[in-house]
Design goal:
There is one protein chain. The chain is of the alpha/beta class and about 210 residues long. The protein has a single domain, classed as Metallo-beta-lactamase, Chain A, CATH 3.60.15. Helix content is about 25%, strand content about 30%. The two termini are about 30 Å apart. About 40% of the residues are buried.
Length: about 210
Amino acid sequence: MKIKAFVFNPFYENTYIISDESKECLIIDPGCYEKHEIDEVIAYVKDNKLTAKGIVNTHCHIDHVLGNYTLKEHFKCPLSIPEGEVDVYKAVEVYALQYGITNFTWIPADKLLGKSGEIKFGKTALEILYVPGHSPGHLMFYNKKTNEIIGGDVLFRQSIGRTDLPGGNHEQLLTNIRKVLYTLADDVVVHPGHGQETTIGFEKENNPFVKA
């Protein structure tokens, strides 16, 4: 699995395009907002001769969904969001202007992802991990073969996702990091929604908010 990361929008959010040898790809958490950001995603897909099979949100805070409409319309592919994030996603249309986001277009999801199971593209299957706390229905996507997780805003390098937004729960987040993530192998790489990648082992030893 090849992972391409982009840093987009005023929140410095990590957007990921994951692909494999089949040349199929998923676009995860498209935070592209400005035209040049959207063009960058489209150019990467085109230049690498990829076929976008879907757009997927780990959760639905504004910085992770800004590109949903434009990319769905361009690539004509389905949008999948966590089933527990429906209300969070609907709310973005209401509060976008408060963040100075004037051209956000809301579009409904084609599929709701459950708390377990897999999402697939090409020859790749990603296990769904249910890790609420930062947001009520937050999911992570785990490739067991490559020991990599597309992690959203759960665990960062020496930090964790904020829990002061609507639907956040600090104790729930800490509990889920310990029970869901810290039971994985130390060499599992986490590709987070903001900042640089990290590993489970590093965070168990060095994360000031939640140690093993």
